[in-house]
Design goal:
five-stranded antiparallel beta sheet, 2 domains, disulfide bond, Jelly Rolls, PHM/PNGase_F_dom_sf, PngaseF_C, mainly beta, Peptide-N-glycosidase F-related protein
């Protein structure tokens, strides 16, 4: 009986070992995890900067990658970080042009980090697969104005599977997203040479699906207030549009998204529960997707980002909208980048 038990134990051990050996780096069914920034601090003061950059190695071949997820840990033990709800985002650099592409945007919670989230903030960045391969430069930014700053760790999961389309490309249409106060001034005249919200876009002829990917968040407490003392552009609910050839084609409602239900619910003290206009402290700023009609493929059309009419009476500062819009194209045949002029 003793020999039989020993044999069974040996067989089970052998089976487990074989399965582990099969899970090699070349296993197409394995999620590839890439750790990038590791407890990097950004701050204003103490010889630190509001942003940090780094170069990291991603998989070279993404043919068998279905989705790419980015996870951002905002680390703040013992309330030793910047206590305010700060604008923050993360970028990847396009190797061909040297342009920084905004992958995702989030707002820091008051006083705490996002430790209540197992892996931190999650952002689907599959749309940027054409630049997230091989040696890639990343940048993380926070609009912090003190030396306590914020500390981050960032990692990516390259999840296995068949992509929805074999080839894709992404290019920016507009990016006024360096910080909240570098966004487009709202409710007042602005220099159109600095903030050009009108573009001409050409989608490749062999495109099978195309869409806009937009992130927008408002900042400031400018007057006149909306009902309930809601100043613009942080608190005033608005609906903005993407115009195609002059027609309001897509709507972006900047309204309540459920701040009080935020899983990062330990922001004390902090005014985190009231609804902002389309964002919340301690959450990722939502991405807005708009599909482009197929009859637009292979042609040039006019794009304009159009803000809902409102006039700032200059009674309480300025209002701003930080906005980025990308155009994404996909096909099962090799595809060129869209052209944006």
């Amino acid at each position: 009986m003793k020999k039989i038990i020993t044999l069974l134990f040996f067989s089970a051990f052998t089976l487990i070992a074989c399965k582990d050996d099969e899970k090699t780096n070349d296993d197409p069914a394995r999620t590839i995890n890439v750790k990038t920034f590791d407890k990097v601090k950004v701050a204003f003061g103490d010889n630190l900067s509001q942003s940090a950059e780094g170069t990291f190695t991603f998989p070279d071949n993404l043919d068998n990658v279905k989705t790419i997820k980015m996870y951002i840990k905002d680390i703040c033990p013992n309330k030793d970080c910047d206590e305010w709800d700060r604008y923050a985002n993360i970028y990847a650099k396009d190797k061909a042009t040297g342009t920084w592409y905004e992958l995702g945007r989030f707002i820091n919670p008051y006083w705490v980090g996002n430790e209540k989230l197992e892996r931190g903030y999650e952002v689907d960045v599959t749309d940027f697969r054409s630049i997230l391969s091989g040696t890639t430069e990343l940048k993380i930014y926070t609009e912090t104005w003190n030396a306590k700053g914020r500390t981050y760790s960032v990692e990516f999961d390259f999840e296995p599977g068949t992509p929805d389309y074999k080839y894709s490309a992404v290019v920016p249409v507009i990016q006024y997203n360096k910080s909240s106060i570098d966004g487009v001034p709202y409710g007042t005249n602005f220099d159109t040479n600095v903030f050009d919200l009108t573009k001409q876009i050409t989608i490749p002829t062999n495109t099978e699906i195309a869409y806009f990917r937009t992130i927008i968040s408002g900042w400031g407490h400018a007057t006149p207030n909306d009902a309930g003392g809601r100043g613009c552009a942080e608190w005033c609910f608005r609906t903005h549009h993407i115009l195609i050839n002059g027609n309001p084609t897509f709507s972006h409602e900047l309204k309540a998204i459920g701040c009080a239900q935020n899983p990062v619910n330990n922001q004390a003290p902090g005014n985190w529960k009231p609804e902002r206009a389309g964002w919340c402290p301690g959450m990722v700023v939502p991405v807005r997707f708009n599909n482009i009609e197929k009859n637009m493929f292979g042609t040039a059309f006019n794009f304009e980002y159009d803000f809902e009419d409102w006039t700032n009476n200059n009674g309480n500062g300025n209002a701003f909208y930080a906005v980025s819009t990308f155009v994404v194209v996909k096909s099962n045949a090799p595809i060129e980048k869209p052209i944006v002029n």
